[in-house]
Amino acid sequence: MSVSDYTETEGLPKADRKPYKPWSYDTSNAKLYIPRFTAGQDRWFAAALSEQKGKAPSRLGVFAERPQDKRWELVSVVDLDSPKLPDIALDRDGYATSVAADGNKQLAAGADLLRTGVLDNFATGGTNTGTKIFTPTKASKEQIEVHDKTGTRYGSQGTTVFAGATNRFKDAYALKTTDGGALILFSHTHTQTDAVAHSGLQINPGKDDRAWLHGVPRTSIKYTFVCNDAATVPAKAEPSRLIGYTCARTDASGPPVASWSDRA
């Protein structure tokens, strides 16, 4: 359970809390991509994971060593669009090759540019850069659909605006693929701000918002989401492919309506 899931669950009445079922994966079925590292380099590896034995991978995870804690941590998990994985380049001993996720002139795009494209998918529906950086895939279409559907759900009664936000999780991981490109795993943070169109209206938080908003009606609500993304990037100047993403709400806040403010 993530911190986001825990916070959301704690805000629900006990009757509405679903029993926690930890996500687990079949280690015998996992596909590991372990790069070679030299002394002093940060060590990490990627793993394609399946919930059930014999089933194709449904998630891509990154495990990184934390020397200060003397342990390894699962630092990123992405839900994949398809069980078909990109072809990772392996040496004759079966090791993968780690490449620079940013500033790599051998790749058409780096993590920073990919992040810009993802943020634009949410913010504008891909109008500015998203549809230029990414070729259409299930994941990129889903992000654009979030913008299109969520942005119009209030009609004339309110507005919804998406924007990029300060991203605490700047680490990005990249593995060379057999076509000379790379698989890049990165994170982004975005906000969604809902607001009423004029005074006299209010937004009633849903039950899943109780942990942050406590059921108090608001004139606007700003949600924060932290997301993990995965994309394949070609070596030549062509669009990349977003192959999966996973988001979690980590915060929500906003001014209460006047009657509640007076009461407080």
Number of helices: 6
Rg, rounded, reads 21 Å
Count the strands? Answer: 9
β-strand percent reads 25-35%
Alpha-beta classification: alpha+beta
> Main beta sheet, described?
5 strands, antiparallel
Q: How would you describe the shape?
A: globular
Stretches with pLDDT under 50, minimum 5 residues: none
- Overall average pLDDT: 89
Helix/strand order, N-terminal first: HEEEEHHHEEEHEEH
Cα(first) to Cα(last) distance is: 34 Å
Helix content: 10-25%
Structure commentary:
This protein is an alpha+beta fold and 264 residues long. The protein is built from 6 helices and 9 strands, in the order H-E-E-E-E-H-H-H-E-E-E-H-E-E-H. Helix 2 packs parallel to helix 4 (138-150). The longest helix is centred in the middle third of the chain and has 14 residues, at 111-124. 31% of the residues are buried. The model has no long low-confidence stretch (mean pLDDT 89).
